[in-house]
Amino acid sequence: LGNLHDFDPDVHRVEKSALKSVDLYMLVRLNEVIEKVKAAYDAYQFSTVYHTIHNFCTIDLSAFYLDIAKDTLYIKHADHPARRAIQTVLYETVVALTKLVSPILCHTADEVWEHIPGVKEESVQLTDMPEVETFHDVERLKATWNAFMNVRSDVLKALEEARNAKVIGKSLQAQVTLYASGKTRELLENIADLDKLFIVSHVEIDGDFEDAPEEAMKFSELAVVVEQAEGETCERCWVISKTVGENEKHPTLCTSCAETVINYYE
Question: N or C terminus of the chain: which is more exposed, having fewer CB within 10 Å?
């Protein structure tokens, strides 16, 4: 709700055809939750309702999407397409989840409903359950991101090991070098913004899995080297970048943040 404070669904909603792959994947996952929860209600399986919603909020949202969305939501300018796309996903999510929990958390759902921008009905109890949507090429999308989540889990293990060894502190202090072969390499080469998805300062895809140095942490078709990122910490986005200091007007910012501040907030 806090991240929707400046979002008007009639003005800022991004069409599904313009969403990034990860944003569309989250809507597909939300759609699966809607389908499963509605079926559970019909069968009076209220424990399934609870566990399905809880797992989605804990695993898909908190541990993944909201975590990787923070930089875009807080650092990009207000009308940046990537920011509005994430807000679109958050809007669709909060509306659907509020409707899904309304039969069993009626007062809480009504309180949430009062603060959702753009809703027409006075109470969530006056709405219908969300509809199950269809998506184009959904199986390929799910396969891609399910495979990525496995890779991300491996990278997070390597980051944790580097943190325990005092190589890095926070993950944004890290530079990650990946050595991958086969389908894993193909997957990584076709997903953009790996640094944001891993929440590190820099990601580089180097040689094949067999080329990985001895110090790399090795998994199936993937080896990961974690090092301290080179450069200075941008005081706005906290990313360690070699471009910090290049802008004379804003010497404590990376070039991306400096451009945003100059072009949209000055």
Answer: C
